[in-house]
# Entry
Amino acid sequence: QLQLVESGGGLVQPGGSLRLSCAASGGTLKYYAIGWFRQAPGKEREGISCISSSGVSTNYVDSVKGRFTISKDSTKNTVYLQMNSLKPEDTAVYYCAGSPYTVETMCNAWSEYVYWGQGTQVTVSS
# Structure
């Protein structure tokens, strides 16, 4: 069973950057799409970015497009989320999740993610 562990969260000032990592074990990421989700206080969890199992296809929601970049290092079995130009509204717990079901061009089928990490807190504040 795929196990995921997030790291890299923390406190950052508006306009700053963070890189989140999602390290996988119990399976190789070439068989799983990986998505990043976040949940802000009082809000529902939302999918914000994903990368297909091949690593070729990526997807971003409009609120992070142009600021966040998802990537995969297959040698380390790890997916990264580089977050630049952070805003206070990016404050949330960030989760990575894995799906063995999504097709190459539709990694943003958020309901198909079944393996979840424990989350990492990102706080953007001055």
Remarks:
- The chain has a mean pLDDT of 96.
- The two ends are 40 Å apart (CA to CA).
- The chain has no helices and eleven strands.
